[in-house]
């Protein structure tokens, strides 16, 4: 996921207590590992389960934010989309295998991120009529329906991109989408057992510290996440179902 300067936080002209994109990406990776490992090791419904999954809620929103940033900084958007598509295909089977799903039941969040990227690209096409844009974006949401974070991730990527450089509007749209389509449905269906979903709001203080800088340029950092996502699922699958199964 590619990102560069977007905005900088400063105090009297000096950046303080700021986080660059590489650091935020590491936070997302840690949150993802904790969240996915807890599915296997932490008893469902316990206080610890709520805590670790609350922390894990920040992974997807961070990825959505970085995908939106990447759209504006990639030198070739079509190659970026193609790379994310390949990444989504590679990640599919590790995802369903680890979660004990049939191959056709669902797919990973990477597909949702891909559809979000496509939706953002559609929104930026000036030659398209507004109605056509809405229909195509709706199609992206529909295609992401069975993916992890589904159309919610699509809308987050879209609005992070539409309001790029307007932090308050980005966070407000993020909160509205998350509340309407994620938190409220969870409370209605499962009550207080879904209190961990409030963890998505941890994104706001994290992004408030984002300085708009990419950080140290490194192929390891650039390509590491593409390897990490399916890789950590494969490792967890082996630990859960083969070694300790």
Task: Describe the model.
The chain is an all-alpha fold and 245 residues long. The chain has a domain at 21-104 and 165-243. The protein contains 10 helices and no strands. Helix 1 runs parallel beside helix 10 and helix 4 (77-98) runs antiparallel to helix 5. The model is unreliable at 1-15 (pLDDT under 50).
**Biggest sheet descriptor:** none
Rounded to an integer in angstroms, the radius of gyration calculated over CA atoms is 18 Å
- Please mark out the parts with pLDDT under 50 across 5 or more consecutive residues, or reply none: 1-15
**Total DSSP E strands:** 0
> Distance between termini?
34 Å
Query: Roughly what fraction of the amino acids lie in strands?
Result: under 5%
| Shape summary | globular
Could you give the order of the helices and strands? HHHHHHHHHH
Query: Which class best fits the helix and strand makeup?
Result: mainly alpha
- Overall mean confidence score, pLDDT: 92
Q: What is the percent of helical residues? A: 55-70%
Gist?
Helices cover 67% and strands 0% of the residues. The protein contains ten helices and no strands. The protein has helices spanning 21-41, 47-56, 59-73, 77-98, 109-123, 130-143, 150-162, 167-190, 203-208, 219-243.
């Amino acid at each position: 996921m590619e990102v560069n300067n977007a905005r900088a936080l400063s105090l009297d002209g000096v950046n303080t207590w700021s986080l660059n994109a590489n650091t935020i990406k590491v936070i997302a990776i840690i949150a993802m590992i904790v969240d996915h490992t807890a599915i296997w090791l932490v008893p469902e419904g316990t206080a610890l389960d709520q805590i670790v999954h609350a922390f894990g809620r920040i992974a997807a929103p961070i990825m959505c934010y970085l995908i939106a940033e990447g759209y504006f900084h990639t030198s070739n958007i079509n190659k970026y989309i193609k790379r994310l598509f390949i990444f989504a295909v590679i990640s599919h089977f590790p995802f369903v295998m680890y979660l004990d799903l049939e191959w056709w039941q669902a797919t990973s969040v990477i597909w949702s991120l891909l559809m979000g990227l496509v939706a953002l690209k559609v929104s930026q096409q000036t030659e398209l009529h507004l109605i056509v844009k809405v229909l195509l974006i709706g199609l992206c949401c529909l295609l992401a329906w069975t993916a992890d974070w589904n159309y919610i991730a699509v809308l987050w990527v879209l609005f992070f991109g539409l309001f790029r450089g307007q932090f308050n509007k980005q966070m407000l749209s993020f909160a509205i989408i998350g509340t309407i389509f994620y938190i409220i449905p969870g409370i209605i269906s499962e009550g207080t057992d879904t209190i961990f979903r409030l963890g998505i709001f941890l994104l706001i203080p994290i992004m408030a510290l984002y300085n708009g800088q990419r950080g140290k340029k490194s192929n390891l950092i650039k390509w590491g996440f593409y390897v990490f996502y399916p890789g950590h699922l494969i490792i967890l699958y082996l630990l859960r179902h083969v070694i300790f199964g």
